[in-house]
Amino acid sequence: NVWKRSLNPIEDPSTENAPVYMAISATGTLAVLKVYQLTDAAARLSRAEVDAALEELMGLRVNDSLVQYLSYCYVPPHRVVLVMQYVPGGTLREMKSRYGRKLPLTAVRRNVASMLRGLAHLHGRGVIHGRLCPENVMVGVEGRWRLKGMLLGAAPLIMHQETYYVSPEVAAGGAKTAANDVYALGLLLLAMLTDSHPWQWSANAALDRSRKELDSLLADSTAFREALRNGLLTPVPTPADTDETLRTVLEACLRTAPGDRPTALRLQELRCDRTS
Q1: Which residue among 23, 74, 134, 244 is buried most deeply as judged by most CB within 10 Å?
Q2: Which N-terminal stretch is annotated as signal sequence (predicted)?
Q3: DSSP letter assigned to residue 84
Q4: CB 147 within 8 A of CB 67
Q5: Closest Cα partner for 262 from 273, 271, 250, 274?
């Protein structure tokens, strides 16, 4: 397909490190077009090597819990354009901001199940998401949440923002794994249930550390990871009104030892979307 982009970005450039545009094909199909800056590592690769990494993205099978990559365009020498499925509800963070209050528990249960299906699909193919956060979850008009941002082998080649939805082992410099994706899902679920970010000062932090200091820390990826490595942060408590199934999922996802966390496929057996 040949895609023509909108004149202006559709997302606030101040909150994105890559411009995002609406795109439309000759037949009227809508898509999202995102322009990424390539890293120094990508600049040292041949065009064929960059293409091979990007083709891996295009090779992901269609799944109703994932945002589909449609095509890409390499823009020498330092940029690449990714064309993705258009999901009109925007990101989960944007939807939460517009809604302005805690999400209904039924909607949270349904969509945790959707994200588990998406992660199980990726992990079953040996693929790690590695960047699960509210900005990388899109919301369809029917309310279904879909994962995006799976850069796969292209991750070291494309500049992207780091988030605070990471496990202690990744903050310590460890490799991103399926267990890290599960931990990030737990943090995301916690944020949806508490209507806030998922971290608080731990008992190891000074008693006078304030919420304002915490907010500043979370805005600085390097400082956040150092604080997490040093044991100064811990996930916030699970809200008292959380039902037993979601509480079980949270406890399992947020286990400290990666080997103690169940797989996304195993967590699906808890049937988060089942109503009591």
Answers
A1: 23
A2: none
A3: E
A4: yes
A5: 250
C-alpha span between 120 and 117 (Å, rounded): 5
pTM confidence score: 0.88
pLDDT by residue for the chain (276 residues), tens only, comes to 789 989 988 875 544 567 889 999 999 999 999 888 888 888 788 888 888 888 887 887 788 899 998 988 888 778 888 899 999 888 898 888 888 888 888 888 889 999 999 999 999 988 889 889 998 999 988 888 999 887 666 667 777 777 899 999 999 999 889 999 999 999 999 999 888 889 999 999 888 888 899 999 999 989 999 999 999 999 999 999 888 999 999 999 999 999 999 999 999 988 776 655
Question: Which one-letter amino acid corresponds to residue 113?
Answer: A
Tokens of 51: 């293409």
Count of alpha carbons within 13 Å of 58, Cβ hemisphere only? 13
